[in-house]
Amino acid sequence: MTPYEAASLFVAFAEAAQTGFANYIAILSGMLAASWFFAHRLTRLMAAILIFIFTVAAAGFGNEVFSIYSDLARLGTYLHGIGQAPEAGLGWLGPVRGPAGSMAPIPYVVLSLCLMGYVAALWFFFHVRKIRREDVADA
Fold first, then answer.
1. CA angle centred on 48, ends 130 and 58, rounded to 5°
2. Model's pTM, two decimal places?
3. pLDDT digit string (tens) for 107-121?
């Protein structure tokens, strides 16, 4: 693989990683909207089904995001190695300019963000469910 092909592949992986993370954020946003509008109206069974579906979707997309960012980090490490040669002409690319191993923590940071988003969405669901049920009971 030529340095240009490797750099082009890195850009393609970066785009795929951003798309995967955007899909995950879309799932979180959908859960937040569903929580706000419908959580207090759902029976326990319907709430359990919604949470199950959300959990399966979040786990699937979270795994996809982690995998893509892991591949991106490994490719960045590879590019750092081949980009150090002056004839490679990759001095403009971020992973080549940065210190060796600087991309290794990125998949774990993104995975942490996914997990925090998942936990926050579940907390929001139960929080809104409780508050809105109390409002309905008071009326």
1. 100
2. 0.83
3. 999 999 999 999 999
